[in-house]
TrEMBL record:
Name of the featured protein: Olfactory receptor family 56 subfamily A member 4F
Record has Transmembrane as a keyword: yes
Gene Ontology terms: biological process: cellular response to lipid
GO cellular component terms listed in the entry, alphabetical order: plasma membrane
Cytoplasm is among the record's keywords: no
Subcellular localization(s) per the UniProt record: Membrane
Source species: Equus caballus (Horse)
Amino acid sequence: MWIIIFPFIQLVSIGTYYKYVTVSEFFLICFSYYKGWQHWLSLSLSLLFLLAMGANTTLLITIWLEASLHEPMYYLLSLLSLLDMVLCLTVIPKVLAIFWFDLRSISFSVCFLQMFIINSFLTMESYMFTVTAYEHYSAICRPLQYPSIISDQFVARAVIFVVARNHLFFLPVPILSARLRYCAENIIKNCICTNLSVPKLSCDDISFNQLYQFVVGWTTLGSDFILIVLSYSFILKAVLRIKAKGAVAKALSTCGSRFILILFFSTVLLVLVITNKRILPDVPILLNILHHLIPPALNPIVYGVRTKEIKQGIQKLL
């Protein structure tokens, strides 16, 4: 993780040195209309956070200790769990600190570091969904070639590609925002530092920032989603040809639950953009928080516990 974050810290330091910044910290204002139910919401978020961290930790320990799970498929699940845990730890503790202790301030550098981690790890998770969809496609549609396709080398190449893609395309997003001048306004109308909330406070022109985020976001995340849909389309076509009793229902159950989870992950940001000006501002903020919490809480169940080998490994662990 530090391999990914360290270049960002260096570049932000350089940008902050050369760009005069009068704002040293921001204040996060989560909910403007429904502050009264923040404590009740914090209880639900705490339970989901504990579920996400506990489930992902259990999955990682099980794969690490069980020798039979040292295979490429389970390495991909481990990487997905690591990404989920980083996203949860980056977002949810700060949100709960605001709800419980009213700790709304966040320093300039920490805010943009949070923005960088969210950008990087969300897009890496999107790519890992694409890779797991391809792995599932290979297992069902090309079972004889599966061992040669999904290998340790395939996992290594996937990791190298996703790290390189994030450095190339998404590192400039927080860098461009950090180099803007923030003259007076420092109230962020959100619970976290996001691409849409922070640059609006700048007294500079942010047209290039918005254009870059739009092009890069739709190009990378859109291509991931298209590949995922194609993979599951081929899977569905192959499954419907299976004649074995119960095989179709089992395969559709597995693919359906995975695709619904991916659909939630991929479409929440689109919903936020479309409805941001049409509904109460608190609703997009809540969706933004859940977007960083629900997939990490459900991924270990959908991808891990429902797998027979992992279920047996957890039973041995317990």
